[in-house]
Structure formats: C-alpha cells, structure tokens
Design a protein that fits this description.
six-stranded mixed beta sheet; single chain; five-stranded mixed beta sheet; alpha/beta; 8 helices
Length: 421
C-alpha cells in the first residue's frame, strides 16, 4: 500500500541511521556548510576582558551619580584606552578621575562604568559630565566572558557550520574542526527520449528533449552538502540500467539516486535492475502528487532512492525526500523540511485523495501572517513554475478544493533563499 507523505519521509530518513561516515578534521576555511562531528568547547573567554560598549570615559559610578547640565561633574582625564591596548598597562581609575576609552577597548582597573561621549564636553585633559544615566545598569561595560565562558560548550554535535560559526570558531583559535564527510551521491537517469545540451540540435529537430533534471537535480542536492557524481544517460533497457547501477556501486557511493523508470510503464526497468543486483525495496509509491511513483531501499548495503522522471516531480521529491536524506547522511542535526503556517490567497482543485504539493510563492502579509500565492499553472510538466516558487503548499488528502483565505502548511524549498524586493 502506498505510504503517506510523513510515512515515506520517515522510511527514507531511516535509511541514514548509522551511515554518517568517519569524521575528518579539516581546515576552518573549508568547513562552511559541513556538520560538526563532535561538540566544540572553548578554552578562553569571549570577550577576554571587560571592555567598553561605547566611546566615552571610564569612571567610577559614584563619581557621576547626580550629574546634570545644571550640576555637572568635572573629572581629570588620566589618558586613553584604545581598542588593542594592553589592559595591564592602563592607569588605575581612582575616585574622582576618568580615562578616555573607545568602543571595545579594555576597561582600566578601578572603573566600573563608561559615560557616553555624547553626555560630556569631549574634554581632553579634564572632562565635564552632564548626565548620570550611565551610572545605572551595566554602565556600558561588556563583561569578560559575556559571549563565551572559558570551558563552556559552544556548539553541539551535528550543528551546521555557517558564516557566524566560522567567526566564533576563529575567535577561540580553532584552526581545524572535526566534521562528518560530505555524502557521496551518484545519480543515474534513464530515458531514450533524453539528451544533454551537446545534442540540442536533436531537440530543435523535434526528435529529443533536454534532460533538464540532469542539470537541476545535481544543483539542488549540492546545496544539501552532497558530493555529486552523475552517470551518463542510460538507455531504456534492463541490461543497460543494470550495468549502470552496478558501475555506480563499484565506483563507491553513500547514496544511489535514480530518476525515472520507477513507474509501471513498459520501459521502466529500474526496480528490476535493482532486484537483479540483490537490492531490497523498502517501499514503492507514496500518496502524494506530484511524485507518487517514488521508491526507497538498499542495494549492496547502499541506500537507494528512486525519484520519478517527470522534471517537476523529480525536483519536488528531491526537495522533500532526497535533500533531507543527504543532510542526515552528512550528520546534520537539522534535516527535515521547515513547515510554516500560511494563508492561501488563490484557489485550486485537488480532487484526488492525496497530499498535494502546490508550487507557491510565500511572502509576508500586511498583518505579518505569511501568505502563499500560486507560482503559476500546476501541471507536472511545467518546470518554470517550479523555478518561480519558493515553497510547496501542503494540501491534505481530505481537502478537495483549496479556497482563498484557508490556512495551510507551506514547506520552504531548501535551496531558495527567502528574499524580498
């Protein structure tokens, strides 16, 4: 019996259990997008010393309490603390004195507050303070260890390393980091009607069509962190498909993905070829549209994911299933598609009792609620609509017509940044 969407996703993700690969140490500069294979802690505190949060004057709080323009406080200035100054060489700020200080510069001993320069006369040898607001609260002082305490854990196993992570890791001296390897993914596509761009003259002659997914699917899966290898287009014969799959497995991969050949057509040989190689099928078909003819299993102890060959179906199932599977194989803690509640602004018929995924454009409504509009016509052959969409609107099986104003769940497409004009 075909599985529901969530059942299919759970079954596919189960294929990744225990398959994250042997961790490796790589240079920090190469770690963007990889998943940490072990928690990272810090030996040092950040910031390493108390420092100023404002340009101004380091003072003792008691010296500026009650300062107003009518009754200012006048303090001699002992010198200056600039960013990069040696904290041990700074003069002691005793009662009744001040030290000029710049944002980020170390606090001098004795001082416990920073008066903003805007609340003074900018004095050089002595400063006149007109306002005591900085004598309360933290007094514009950033305490040592406010961001990171020495000996604390910074990031957990499975965290995906982003740009800010790189900055933090560099700040604590992590020249290398331990990460899970990028999954090696081999894509095998079949179809006698398909050609690559070097044979576009046959497309213009009306004899073939471009294998658009040979370009789109690898690009999508690279954004999941996969190391992609593609096999030349395979003819629609059982022997050719069996040989192509055997060659892909012999070359080594962590995940085998096929596109096409998983339906019930006369030239759909993928499942037979897998069976000839000793493959085991976990499930075949899901109660979704587009993308119903999808399969999952293992062959020679390598996970296999069979995506439908229709271009839109390939990319929809690639986003919903292959992308999360690759993320999990790569050791990423966050791997399931993000689902957000949205208000639908259009209308669409979904009469079949399936979970439908409509290509939509999600944006913020005037009231802050995310809103979804159809990206265009929803035919499964209309790839341009997929390119215009930034999310998939999930219409549950019990809804036969989605009306404007109804609330649904949208699954954000993993490779599309949410931006606005």
């Amino acid at each position: 019996m075909p599985l529901s969407f969530d059942e299919a996703l759970d079954a596919i993700l189960l294929q990744a259990d225990g398959r994250s690969g042997v961790p490796e140490h790589i240079a920090l500069e190469q770690a963007l997008g990889r998943a940490l294979s072990a928690p990272v802690g810090s030996r040092i505190a950040l910031p390493p010393w108390d420092n100023a949060g404002m340009d101004g004057y380091a003072v003792q709080r008691a010296d500026v309490i009650g300062a107003t323009r009518a009754a200012p406080r006048v303090l001699p200035v002992l010198g200056m603390s600039a960013a990069g100054a040696d904290a041990t060489a700074l003069p002691w700020v005793q009662q009744g004195t001040a030290l000029r200080i710049m944002t980020g510069a170390p606090m001098p001993p004795g001082a416990d507050a920073v008066v903003r320069i805007e609340d003074t006369d900018h004095g050089i040898e002595q400063v006149t303070v007109f306002d005591d607001r900085d004598a309360t609260g933290r007094g514009n002082v950033r305490p040592r260890g406010e961001d990171v305490a020495a000996g604390s854990e910074l990031f957990a196993d499975g965290i995906t390393i982003g740009a800010a992570h790189l900055g933090v890791l560099a700040s604590i001296g992590a020249r290398t980091v331990a990460v899970y390897p990028a999954p090696r993914v081999t894509i095998v596509s079949s179809g006698d009607e398909l050609v690559m761009l070097d044979r576009f003259d046959e497309v213009e002659a009306g004899r073939r069509i471009v294998s658009s997914t040979s370009y789109a699917l690898p690009a999508l899966l690279r954004t999941a962190g996969a190391d992609i290898r593609t096999v030349p287009l395979v003819p629609d014969t059982l022997r050719a498909m069996t040989d192509a799959l055997a060659g892909a497995l012999d070359d080594g991969c962590d995940l085998l993905i096929t596109t096409g050949g998983v339906s019930v057509g006369a030239h759909d040989y993928t499942r037979d070829a897998l069976a000839a190689l000793g493959g085991r099928q976990t499930f075949w078909r899901a109660r979704i549209r587009p993308g119903g003819p999808i399969g999952s299993g293992t062959v020679r102890d390598v996970p296999w994911l069979g995506l439908p060959g229709n271009p839109v179906s390939t990319l929809v199932t690639g986003s919903l299933f292959a992308w999360p599977l690759i993320r999990r194989l790569g050791g990423h803690a966050g791997h399931r598609p993000l689902r957000v509640p949205v208000r639908f602004l259009d209308a669409a018929d979904t009469p079949a009792p399936l979970t439908h995924f409509l290509r939509v454009i999600v944006s913020a409504g005037a009231d802050g609620m995310p809103e979804a509009r159809l990206a265009g016509a929803q035919g499964s052959n209309l790839l341009r609509t997929m390119a215009l969409a930034n999310a998939l609107l999930l219409i549950p099986p019990e809804v036969s017509r989605a009306e404007a104003g109804m609330l649904f769940t949208a699954i954000l497409l993993p490779d599309v940044p949410l931006m606005t004009t």
